[in-house]
Amino acid sequence: MPISILMYKQRFRNPNFKTTAGANYAHVRYIATRPRVMRNEGMDHGLFGKLEPGAVKEFEDWKDVARLVYGNSRKHITMYRSIISFTAETAEELMLKDQKSWQRYIENHIMTIAEKNNIRREHLQWACAAHNEKGHPHIHVVFWDTSRRVKNPFTPPAVPNAIRRQMIKDTFPEKIREFGRQKDMAVSAMRKISDELVEDFVKHMRIMDKSRYKHLCEASEGESEMDFDFEDRFLNEIANRVLRIRNATPQKGRIAYQLLPVEVKTAVDSLVQFILKENPAIKSLVDDYVQSKLNLTKLYTSDEDYIKNMEGKFRKEAEKIIANRILGMVKSLNRLDNELKSEEYIQSRREYYAAQMLYEILDMLSSLTYENNNRYNRYASADTGDLSKEAKKELFLKNQDKGYEH
User: Fold this and answer.
1) Same domain, yes or no, for 32 and 94?
2) DSSP per residue, 228-270
3) Residue 253: its pLDDT value, please?
4) Is residue 225 domain-shared with residue 329, that is, in the same domain?
5) How far apart (Å, rounded) are the C-alpha atoms in residues 100 and 38?
6) Which of 205, 220, 223, 371 has a Cα at 20 to 30 A from 332?
7) Is 1 domain-assigned?
């Protein structure tokens, strides 16, 4: 297991072996009396623990506990052995300087060990001793389950690892909170800067003349550089690349980084690297994000290969945040396109209705003219020689109302 800020190991002797009871007895003697053990006050050993509810007890005679462990082993009860270890610097930071401080520490964390091993509080018994070993002070814990239930003694590796991780969280909450705060601040700042970048881009594109916008979109299908009239080269280059990415992005379906075709994802990644190279502020925030995540990782391991591998993973996480902002630009362009198409559609419909109205007016006027001519011809050809002026007027008024209804 890689070294971390807190080491936890757990093992046991098979309770069905004949030699297990004697080996467990010897283990209790070893942890209680070995050199550099932190001794109980006025005693020649350092064994303490809890065999019943109440306060932690410093056992008067380690042999009493050893005999109990021996008897339990003969009953095939599993005697678990574990060890918690720190570097000297970490132990000093935690003020684990004497036996009393180790007693307080293990009492605060013993239930994590029990719960991960599925031992209930009322069935837990334990004994331990702290060793002031140079370079790595540590504490040995022997614990067991007093319930009568049948239990498989096998302990999956995930159990001690879960105990170690939980104890780290409980032992170093301030460190974890601080590193987490640093990570959140870096993410927030990264998003703020990249959002401002997107906002500048979209604002510029929105105020651009529609014909010029269409020209740029058509030009982006080629390989030539386009001039977007941004004040700096940085935004112009981003706009160039974003339009080409938009053209290569499938028009249907959700636009998400993980769903992009390989060639589009490569173009997005390339633009991310360009932004990091040209914008020191964003690069610095990416570095801050990676370092904050590494600080958290180093609480759990000091394996250099593992840390290096995780550094690459964390950097990709940060770069993906920027990649998603780039795709935000692509989505904004799609919205602009839809708005433009909508505007063009509305305009074309307006022109259509205007033309229809003109056609109807012309048709109406043509019909009226035709009817007026017909009425005139009918009136002119009528035999009106014998009619008086009043009779002719009456005939005209009678016929004039037979025209276009309006």
Assistant:
1) yes
2) ---SSHHHHHHHHHHHHHHHHS-SSS---GGGS-HHHHHHHHH
3) 72
4) yes
5) 9
6) 223
7) no
